[in-house]
Amino acid sequence: MRSLFSADERLARGLAYAMAALLAIFLAWPLAEILVKALQGPDGQYLGLGNLRALLTEPRLLDASWNSLIVAGAATALVVPAALVFAFALTQSRIHGKSVFKVIALSPLLTPSLMPAISLVYLFGHQGLLKGWLHGHSIYGPLGIILGEAFYTFPYAVLVLVTALGVADARLYEAAEVLGANPLRRFMTVTVPNIRYGLISACLIVFTLVITDFGVPIVVGGQTNVLALEAYKQVLGQQNFQKGAAVGLVLLLPAVLAFAAERWLARGRGGSFSGSSVAYHAKPSALRDGLLWGLCAAVCVFLLAMTATAVAASFIKLWPYKMNLTLAHYDFANMDGGGWLAFHNSLKLGALTALVGCAVVFAGAYLVEKTPAPRGAAALIQSLALTPMAVPGLVLGLGYVFCFNRPGNPLHKLYGTMAILVISTVVHFYTTAHLAIMTSLRQIDGEMEAVARSLRRPWWTTCLRVTLPITLPVLLDVARFLFVSAMTTVSCVIFLYTPDTVLASVAVLNMDDAGDTASAAAMATLIVASSLAITLACNGLGWLLNRRAQAWRRSPA
Amino acid sequence: MGDFLAVDGIVKRFGGFTALAGIDLRVAEGEFLCLLGPSGCGKTTLLRIIAGLETQDRGRVLVAGRDISHLPPARRDYGIVFQNYALFPNLNVAENIGYGLRTGRAPRRQRVEELLALVGLSGDERKYPSQLSGGQQQRVALARALATCPRLLLLDEPLSALDARVRVHLRQELKELHRRLGITTIMVTHDQEEALSLADTVAVMDHGTLEQVGTPEQIYHEPASRFVADFVGRSNFPPVTVRLDGKVELAGQEILVPGSYPAGSGRLFCRPEDLRIGPRHEANLLMALVESLEFLGPVRRVTLRLEQAREIVLSVDLSAKDRGIEVGQRVPVSFPVDLRLFMEEAV
């Protein structure tokens, strides 16, 4: 026996169905298309596992797979320990300048993945400033890829490990100390078990990011072929959609496995930091702090160099011969590749993604969490919302091509427009936004909706008057995240842009391809500058919001 | 019939777990009903079904003769207060209280002032929930629930989150409020002192069924089952045997018990305050050893073991005036003449 719903609740249920349908169309459908295409031959005939078998037998594809694994493994081995030391320094030591270190550690998030590759070329390439350091080895190849990916994935590893280390309960350490454990034993028996999950998580994330990125390999990969590059070449170069789909399917594998592994691991854990835990504050130790400071500084120098080099090179006439400053490389009108249109398009994409993304993701989360949505629709929204995390941008882009490029598809006219770029970018980064907003919504007392219903107010009144103001800081954060992600992403949009909708990150790729490395660096600098500007603007807005909300956020004296 | 609220055969299951196994309840207009029981007995589930926040699997809910069983919460006429207040944190006190009022600004302001005066918070209109104490927040939640003049007030453990002293104070205010407004109220609580103090009628629940419905005096002095006797107040349950000739035996000695009981084993029911140390009634006197004394302020709680049956433990409350009792002493303990017996279920 079901209760009748009031008119406003019926509207919410309808919206929930609509939301589920949207996600099904723009996420599930493209992924299904990849699966179908991967099992087809060049003329559309059903090949079964033929394409996938080719991956294991064609020497070229086998070579690419092998390289991908090696490079991803090496990058993980390089990044995770470094990130662990860095995170340890940030959370369990008394070094000075922690906030500066943290900002620099997270700065790669503002850059397109092509940027470190360009910097590596300027530093270690044929005319590289520091070419001598390589003692005859070439930066073009696995070395360059690994170093570039290390820069790109470092902030992700640091974020995960800082969270893992940050929930240390002081009382556990005190108990261990009183029972006679020395620092090393305390580290092995208290710290390490706690961060096991975080470590595995960081490794999975880094591995997956590296194996699915093609921005770094395409600039500094040289002759080394990797799977991500292979997918790009098959689809854009050889127009062999089916082979590209097969590679895409294989690229989906590490992400899905990592995702499944994380959920399986997460299931066994209760909260290790309970409400009665006490935060851990490290005791001062000159030796430990000195060492850590040195290591952090070294890492930060590397990170800054990767960004600063490209930025500097964009202002230098002809590196390394004519080192005078110039703005010539910013004169995009004179270059092929996209020019200022690309930059404007990227800004437009960023703004639209932030606005549309925030609205849609909030709507989905709110309908599921705070309204009596029909169970089927809610379950569909929840599971689809978590899927994009397991889908690399490359694979998503491929799916969109296969799905919406077919003339028979009723939504075909979306293809080639800015709209499809916005939609695909929102879907690409959906999960992170969804989880952030869900967490925030869950922290709000569930009974408020019940009270509002007993007071006979429709759900949208409560949403506008109570829920939105409370979640505004998180929404601002999500908007910032979506904007920066849209500015710096290239893997999904590379398959979906047209000359009218070319983007800055794509322009970087094109200009570097054409040999205009300096202009590519200039465009990349513009991307970083606008990401930075938006981040600062959002932080400032957040600070203002916080001030205004102080009256009611403040806990009683 | 004159019943304002009627609940007929309400059944609710969560998967394989039966939360409510068929509840029938009648509440008169203006009555204060307490749903009392341990955690998991189903009392909150029942309240939520009356509120329309949960849907029953079977049964009906009627208000003033109207079947509201399938109406959404917005179409039922009630106000609700939760254990953790659920105040809107970003709205001040006046905005919280006025949330359900859809009148113009002036009548709304007047009504809010009325309500603030009613709950004793005049002058706090512009404060935010985070600036109020627990007791103040609860009063704002009450005012908000009463703002729309609902005919039914539902309270879900409203005092559980408060300090002991604030709880007692607010309890008295709640009672006074009910006396002044005369609004039909249903309160869920696990605190039997609260139930006895506030309610006109107490409904004791256990494992999804109603154990007893009656006035606080009835519940306390005439418990219908051993569960009620045990849950409400403190009790002694020494095991007794009923002989074939109808006489009742405790630790080998005959005890005078009114009424007749079938032969078998059972439990005697008497409260600590009904037992006396020292000869008061010549019948029903047994010798016991004082095992321990607990000083509780107004009373001293004595734990005794019967001399003839050391495994039987009794709890007796002594006032401060009863002096001279010490641990290890051999004392006479007398049972009152109007005892109750609960027969043990035949296994």
Which key terms come to mind for this protein?
heterodimer, A: 557 residues, mainly alpha, two-stranded antiparallel sheet, 2 strands, 71% helix, B: alpha+beta, six-stranded mixed beta sheet, five-stranded antiparallel beta sheet, 8 helices, 20 strands, elongated
Short description:
With 557 residues, chain A is mainly α. Chain A has helices spanning 7-38, 50-57, 59-91, 98-106, 114-124, 142-166, 170-178, 183-212, 215-220, 227-237, 241-267, 286-314, 339-370, 375-386, 393-404, 418-428, 430-443, 447-454, 459-488, 504-513, 517-553; strands spanning 316-318, 322-325. The model of chain B has no long low-confidence stretch (mean pLDDT 89).
What does this entry look like structurally?
The complex is a heterodimer of chains A (557) and B (347). With 557 residues, chain A is mainly alpha-helical. Chain A has 21 helices and 2 strands. The longest helix of chain A has 37 residues, at 517-553. Chain B is of the alpha+beta class and 347 residues long. Helices cover 23% and strands 34% of the residues of chain B. Chain B has 8 helices and 20 strands. Chain B has helices at 43-51, 93-97, 105-119, 134-146, 164-181, 192-198, 216-221, 226-231; strands at 3-14, 17-28, 32-36, 58-63, 66-67, 78-81, 152-156, 184-189, 201-206, 209-214, 239-242, 248-250, 253-255, 264-269, 276-277, 285-295, 299-306, 313-319, 330-334, 340-343. In chain B, strands 6-7-8-3-9-10 form a 6-stranded mixed beta sheet, with helices on both faces. In chain B, strands 13-12-11-14-20 form a 5-stranded antiparallel beta sheet, with no helix packed on it. In chain B, strands 15-19-16-17-18 form a 5-stranded antiparallel beta sheet, with no helix packed on it.
